[in-house]
UniProtKB/TrEMBL annotation:
Residues annotated as signal peptide: none
Ranges of residues in domain Mycothiol-dependent maleylpyruvate isomerase metal-binding: 8-139
Xref: Pfam families: MDMPI_N
Molecular function GO terms recorded: metal ion binding
Name listed for the protein in its UniProt record: Wyosine base formation
InterPro entries: DinB/YfiT-like, Maleyloyr_isom, MDMPI_metal-binding
Taxonomic lineage from the root: Bacteria, Bacillati, Actinomycetota, Actinomycetes, Streptosporangiales
Domain of life: Bacteria
Length: 242
């Protein structure tokens, strides 16, 4: 895969190019995130980037209970949602400005506190890319704006596949090895997992990442899952670490 820290920067820049063009009416438009406007989504991204920065500085409190995460995010947004769009965009830009370089500079074998677990700097960068990509869809979809899939989805697909054992555990299910053969936006086929695994997921990488982000149901996707654990893997798939 290409460098995750460079690709995180590229994802920020793709979203920035969208946000820079929004009108006041678009900032206040409902997003695809239930109960949140476009401004609320950007505020959430700024707040979570600030939490990532706190983690890098060693200032983030220990892992949270998974059940608290959504409520905490809603409360944090509600507490600050009166920020003007120009100020909000400046805050998000400031929060993202140093993140790729700061994560790259952190010892690669270290662990950083994040939500309900701890992650390596590269994996935290991957989760930040995944969250920005998913929320970019929440912003651009309702506004009818383009947000094309890119090869950066490979990082997100890797994260979804890599965390399948964790996803099975969170759901209280007994999983098993699953391999993925996913078609990239440029037609390349990405392979994840043991080639001999009896369970297989095939189809568009964009659909796989959207299912993992809970932006697309497995039934509405073009993915095919076979074997003893393939279909179940699609129901638990997640591109985030809680």
């Amino acid at each position: 895969m290409t460098d995750i820290f460079d690709d995180l920067q590229a994802e920020y820049e793709q979203l920035d190019a969208v946000l820079a063009t929004l009108t006041p009416a678009q900032w206040s438009h409902p997003s695809a995130a239930t109960g949140w406007t476009v401004s609320d989504v950007v505020l959430h991204l700024a707040q979570t980037e600030e939490l990532a920065a706190a983690s890098i500085r060693g200032e983030l409190a220990g892992p949270r209970n998974r059940g608290e995460v959504d409520a905490m995010a809603d409360s944090a947004v509600a507490a600050e949602r009166d920020i003007a769009p120009a100020d909000l965009l400046a805050r998000w830009r400031a929060a993202t400005a140093f993140m790729p370089a700061a994560l790259r500079a952190h010892p690669k074998d270290s662990r950083l506190t994040w939500v309900a677990t701890s992650l390596s700097p590269a994996t935290l960068a991957t989760t930040r890319l995944a969250e920005h990509w998913a929320h970019a869809l929440d912003i651009t979809g309702p506004l009818g704006l383009a947000y094309p899939d890119t090869p950066r989805l490979r990082h997100i697909a890797w994260l979804g596949h890599r965390t399948l054992p964790y996803a099975f555990e969170v759901e209280g299910l007994t999983g098993g090895p699953v391999r993925c053969e996913l078609t990239a936006p440029d037609g390349e086929v990405w392979h994840f997992g043991d080639p001999a695994a009896p369970s297989v997921i095939t189809g568009p990488a964009g659909d796989f990442c959207r299912v993992g982000a809970r932006r697309l149901s497995p039934a509405d996707s073009a993915l095919k899952a076979t074997g003893p654990h393939g279909p179940q893997a699609l129901t638990v798939l997640r591109n985030y670490a809680f």
